[in-house]
Design goal:
The protein is α/β, with parallel strands linked by helices. Helices cover 37% and strands 12% of the residues. It is globular, with a radius of gyration of 28 Å.
Length: 945
């Protein structure tokens, strides 16, 4: 008989029993190892008391069940209507196989950016499929692996056009037929760069006056036209032609590449990705071959591994902002990889025949609506269109819009006398009947059979001819293909990813579930506000809690990546200076240790970057900082700092840096990349920060998604609040296409904050610092640990110095690739210090997993000692042959170490061993022989031989 023993264990305690990895007893063991009496004493030794916040975060946590119940209630406050607003956002059908196996699968959504290609071959193949899809449909040979949204892609295209154009003109032509939000974001990007925007109809274009022009095809009001003449005229003037386009339309319409377009941009949202009140969605960019090295963002290329087998990798300028800094061509650091993968699988799932069928159905439904309206006497334009028409309704506009809403349909309000209608994949006979009824047409519509596309605009070329788009479409085959690709990758569902500055923490299932609910997923970003009351409640509460956490007074949720947050924060500072008549303030001080996106963002804002030295201990050199702030004088606009520093320590001088900046009239931008070391302990808005962006995909639990989505909202003090980004449809300073950026994934961060509660968030920060100090203490005898704080502590990450082993021929690459054999993603390599590894375990990792990583690093150190002692040459060692594949295991073995040592080192699982699908990838070969679309199937056959 069991005795009744009361317990204080709470199985619903999400923070301490689900999110935070080490148990209380394990924490005690770890504290003993680092030499701290308690968790609080460790924090006191780590975080300067002068910056600690006075008040604790005090809201109560919710259990997972209570959270989901609350979310259901909030979701019910959104009114899901059929939105035929268009404007770049459309209803779409996500195939359940893709929803379940990609969007809801942690093997896909918890992966990191594929900077270690050997353990990212699955998502790299899916992204290469995406690039091939975009390249084929747009008719241009090179595409990237996605950008943030259509509007920012268009702004990037403008900047790219200026770089590659041989025209010396300073203006850029923007067609009035672009989506309004795209025009708004282009205007924002142009202003600090001194680019003049000329708006007009395509026929108004003066090619000699511009370095480039952008047209929408189909236009925002539905127009389709042959742009060949405009493209030719631009080329004659040595200018660049950019076309914003629609992938589904291009399944029927003549491709822009065939008209002479140099660059194409757009969104792949309608390829199976829910609208989500604005995002996330994968934008695309494609270009002529000669412009490929100027293209922003990531490009997946094809290379070979150590055995000559085909292998994928990120190519060209993948992290060029970290190398070129303020001379970088873009600050793009986040793609929309997960959403690009979804869109690519949508194309694989349907194939070219299926996509064409969907496009034809959409088009004929639009023609059916147009015919019925015209038959009833309505004035409908244009005559040639794909899916969008405009109806002139005069003074009856508001009545028509209201009647449509009564029928559960949102239409687009255009001016004072027109409405826009954009049909989509979800439009059926029932929707058409309700739509026409809104116009007083009750007779059944006669389904159209003839297209409204002129013969010369119908597509003639083939697309998606690669075998991957012609797979057997049985769901069993699709499911297995998705599984095969995910099995090639290493994500958080397999192992710890100890990337410094990237905060790869738990993405809890309960946080993820609501994003696929239709009440959140099916809302159009420009739907009437009264239909999004649930979103408004979430946004208000999330804003309030983030203000409480950070010490700021207001937030903009618009920036849809961390780099966009940096950019938006600096634009806000600039707008503030302009409002005060300080137009001359153009100097931005940036420490040499800063993220590469910091100086790149400042350059995009037209600021002059002045680099501040670092002291030997990694801190900002306060004397150099003071001298350069004084030299800037009344030109000082801002300083960009990261806190804790990029070197992983809490600098005691942060308040002094802020004071000096303010004394010279500048504003302090605090990069939020390391916020996981601050929450509940330090408020950046109370230590002197004027603006910060928060990487919600780091600190606040949004998954990295294999390289995106991200969110980078900015918090500001009250004096900057009037200068936050404006509404993309109506305001100034918009940085993203939708008012709240990728709104649907804000739900994840809100859920995380609600389930953790104030105390749980604070405990997460404390344990993140404990885990990092535990790793530093355990590895300090084997590797030097750089930049310990003044009391011998690191913050939430530590930098392992591997430079001393270089004298034995062992590189940081060798260590990174050997960690793959141990079943780990390498830490951040060679940044912020070349030849080092920056390790961040986060609070989510258990002691067992951290110990496994420590064992792996110690095992590697022993292998380095063998090389140093002359027992084995580095070229013959397991370090240089890493990572080891199954092919290595079964091939003839002529190496001076055993198969056991090579394939099953100390940290590796034996039963659940992760086997990389390729050996070490040859980066140089990939850049010299750039292939950015799916290679012919014969190439794979040759590689197999």
């Amino acid at each position: 008989m069991t005795r009744w023993n009361p317990t204080d264990y709470n199985p619903d305690d999400f923070a301490n029993r689900r999110h935070i990895g080490p148990s209380p007893s394990e924490m005690a063991e770890m504290l003993a190892a680092v030499g701290a009496d308690s968790l609080e004493s460790l924090i006191e030794q780590t975080v300067p008391g002068s910056i600690r916040q006075d008040e604790a975060l005090d809201w109560a946590p919710l259990s997972e069940a209570a959270l989901l119940d609350k979310m259901r209630g909030v979701a019910a406050k959104n009114e899901v209507m059929t939105s035929l607003i268009g404007q770049g956002y459309y209803g779409t059908v996500t195939p359940p196989a893709i929803q379940r196996n990609i969007l809801e699968n942690p093997a896909w959504y918890t992966a990191y950016t594929p900077y270690q290609p050997e353990i990212a071959q699955g998502r790299l193949e899916a992204l290469l499929n995406y690039q091939t899809m975009v390249s084929d449909l747009t008719g241009l040979p090179v595409a990237n692996a996605s950008l943030l949204d259509e509007a920012t892609a268009a702004a990037e295209a403008m900047a790219m056009a200026q770089r590659v154009a041989k025209s010396k003109a300073k203006a850029f032509f923007v067609s009035e037929n672009l989506h309004p939000q795209t025009i708004s974001v282009i205007a924002t990007r142009a202003l600090p760069l001194g680019i003049e925007i000329i708006k007009g109809q395509p026929e108004d274009l003066d090619p000699e006056a511009v370095f480039g022009a952008i047209f929408q095809y189909p236009g925002t009001y539905g127009h389709i036209r042959d742009l060949s003449a405009e493209c030719a005229a631009l080329h004659e003037a040595k200018a660049v032609a950019v076309v914003a386009t629609d992938l589904l339309a291009l399944c029927l319409l003549r491709e822009p590449g065939a008209m002479g377009a140099d660059i194409c941009v757009g969104s792949s949202q309608r390829f199976g990705v829910p609208m989500g009140y604005g995002g996330p969605h994968a934008a695309f960019m494609s270009c002529r071959d000669e412009f490929k090295r100027a293209m922003p963002g990531r490009i997946v290329g094809v290379s070979i591994d150590a055995k000559g087998n085909k292998a994928y990798r990120l190519a060209l300028q993948t992290r060029e902002q970290h190398i070129r800094r303020e001379k970088a061509t873009s600050n793009v650091c986040t793609a929309q990889a997960l959403l690009a993968v979804m869109a690519s699988f949508y194309a694989v799932f349907h194939g070219p025949v299926g996509l064409r069928a969907i496009a034809q159905r959409v088009h004929l439904n639009a023609v059916t609506v147009a015919d019925a309206l015209r038959a009833a006497g309505a004035e409908v334009s244009p005559d040639a269109f794909f899916d969008t028409i405009t109806v002139r309704v005069g003074v009856g506009q508001l009545g028509i819009l209201a009647a449509a809403r009564n029928h559960g349909i949102n239409l687009r309000k255009i001016g004072r006398d027109r409405v826009g209608i954009s049909v989509d994949e979800t439009t059926d006979a029932s929707v058409i009947a309700r739509l026409l009824d809104s116009f007083g047409i009750t007779d059944p519509a006669t389904p159209a059979t003839a297209p409204a596309i002129p013969e010369d605009l119908l597509r003639e070329s083939d697309y998606l001819t690669h075998p991957v788009f012609h797979m057997n479409r049985a769901e069993s085959e699709m499911m297995r293909y998705m599984r095969r690709l995910s099995d090639r990758d290493l994500a958080l569902d397999r192992a710890m990813i100890p990337l410094g500055s990237c905060t790869m923490k738990l993405n809890a299932a309960a946080e993820m579930m609501p994003i696929t609910w239709p009440e959140f997923g099916a809302l159009h970003p420009f739907a009437p506000a009264d239909q999004a009351a649930g979103y408004a409640e979430m946004l208000d509460d999330l804003t309030q809690k983030l203000c409480t956490i950070t010490g700021y007074d207001a937030f903009s949720m618009q920036p849809n990546s961390g780099a966009q947050g940096e950019y938006a924060g600096l634009l806000t500072i600039q707008a503030y200076h302009r409002a005060n008549g300080d137009d001359q303030r153009d100097v931005c001080l940036v420490p040499s240790s800063a993220h590469g996106t910091n100086p790149a963002s400042a350059q995009m804002c037209g600021m002059k970057v002045v680099v501040v030295k670092s002291a030997p201990n990694g801190d900002i050199d306060l004397e150099d900082f003071g001298d350069k702030a004084k030299a800037a004088g009344d030109r000082l606009a801002a300083v960009m700092i990261t806190y804790p520093s990029t070197h992983g320590v809490f600098e005691d001088t942060v308040r002094e840096v802020c004071r000096i900046t303010h004394d010279h009239g500048g504003q302090v931008y605090i990069d939020g990349a390391n916020m996981n070391a601050l929450v509940g302990l330090v408020k950046p808005g109370e230590i002197g920060g004027d603006v910060s962006h928060l990487n919600l995909h780091k600190t606040f639990a949004i998954p990295h998604g294999g390289g995106g989505p991200g969110m980078g909202p900015i918090g500001v003090k009250a004096h900057l609040a009037p200068h936050l980004p404006g509404d993309p449809q109506t305001g100034e300073g918009a940085v993203s296409a939708a008012p709240f950026g990728s709104a649907s994934i804000l739900l994840i961060s809100w859920a995380y904050i609600l389930m953790m509660g104030g105390q749980g968030l604070t405990q997460a920060t404390r344990v993140a610092i404990l885990n990092a100090n535990y790793i530093a203490a355990k590895l300090a005898g084997a590797y030097p640990i750089l930049f310990m704080g003044n009391r011998g502590r690191v913050a939430h990450e530590c930098i392992i110095d591997t430079r001393p082993v270089a004298e034995h021929g062992v590189t940081v690459d060798d260590i990174a690739k050997r960690l793959i054999d141990n079943g780990f993603h390498a830490p951040t390599m060679s940044w912020p210090v070349s030849g080092t590894l920056m390790v961040e375990p986060t609070e989510s990792e258990t002691k067992a997993e951290i110990d496994r990583f420590i064992a792996a690093m110690l095992s590697i150190r022993e292998e380095i000692r063998c090389v140093a002692n002359g027992d084995i040459a580095v070229e013959a060692s397991p370090l240089r042959h890493a990572p080891h594949t199954v092919e290595d295991l079964v091939a003839e073995w002529d190496r001076p170490y055993s198969r056991e040592q090579g394939c099953f080192p100390a940290g590796a699982f034996r039963v659940d061993k992760y086997w990389p699908p390729v050996g070490r990838v040859d980066n140089v070969h990939g850049d010299r022989n750039l292939i950015c679309t799916c290679p012919p199937v014969e190439d794979y056959a040759e590689a197999a031989e």
